[in-house]
Amino acid sequence: MSGVFSSSRFTGRAYLAVVLIGAGLAVSVAQAEQIDTLARIRQTQTVIIGNREASRPFSFLDEQKQASGYSVELCQRVVDRLRKDLKLPNLKAQYVTVSGAERIPKLASGAIDMECGSTTNTKARQEKVDFSYTMFVAGMKILSRADASIMDPQSVGSKPVALSKGTTSEKLFGQLRDSELRGMQLQVFNSNADAFKALEAGKVVAFPQDDVLLSGLISSLPDKNKYVLSKEYLSIEPYAIVVRKGDSGLLAEIDHTLADLYSSGEINKIYDRWFNTATIKVPMSGLLKEAITRPAKDTGFAKLLGYSL
């Protein structure tokens, strides 16, 4: 290899020039994406927000079929900041409901500008999208019927397990099935609601998902005592608002909004509005308190398998 680059000083310079030009083009593309997103917002006076249908209490459709929840409220605060910073008092938020499998493709295609749901920041996803500061920290557990005695993946055996498509739980349990738990049956559903219906109907014996999402699913059920959550966390899942890869302008607006809410203490009121209600009680975890005190963008960790998600 050294002979190729030493045979001619011109060859080395030409190679360097190509590298620099390529790097410059990459920067230009990233800048263009940033400018185009903000330019479209200015032109249309609309921010397109991806919301979830049933990720209660983060992002869901309420009784009037309007986007609602903790993540949605945080994104509404971002829109308020954009109105001020871009000097667009009539700026509107347009909501587009997306599934777990659709959220990243719809960001990449430009169908939505940011996704406000319950999306975990992972190293694998960072290759495709960018994440805001952590806004919540969840942990994966297993939901099962109280009479099933399922407290960990090993106790599932060869019985069927429900998974929600496009989630970290689908990835983690797929890896388990392909390694140490080869007899496990996995059934993938389009949403958390569909996966829970399968558990409710007895078609599966377990539904692994983030603990707070599972608590949200059963919080309003009259027979919620029929279901139990496993004690041990299988993973640590930091949630964040998601934007297109390289969309640094919009991401900066989101991060500044979150940082202001954290430093002012207003985040505590917003948190209580969604997690301290008559139907759901989720005290703020130490991990989330840490994320609020020192905003960061840590990735998820699979405790069960011992590596980053």
Report on the architecture of this protein.
With 309 residues, this protein is of the alpha+beta class. The protein has two domains: 27-137 and 240-299, Periplasmic binding protein-like II (D-Maltodextrin-Binding Protein, domain 2); 138-236, 3-Layer(aba) Sandwich (D-Maltodextrin-Binding Protein, domain 2). 42% of the residues lie in helices and 21% in strands. The protein has eleven helices and 16 strands. The chain has helices at residues 2-6, 9-44, 70-85, 103-109, 123-126, 168-178, 192-200, 211-218, 248-264, 266-275, 286-293, and strands spanning 46-51, 54-55, 59-61, 67-68, 92-97, 114-115, 129-131, 136-145, 160-164, 185-189, 206-210, 227-229, 235-239, 242-244, 301-302, 307-308. A five-stranded mixed sheet has the order 5-1-6-14-7, sandwiched between helices. Strands 8, 11, 12 and 13 form a four-stranded antiparallel sheet that branches. A hairpin with a 3-residue loop joins strand 2 (54-55) and strand 3. Helix 3 (70-85) crosses helix 9. The protein is globular. The two termini are 37 Å apart.
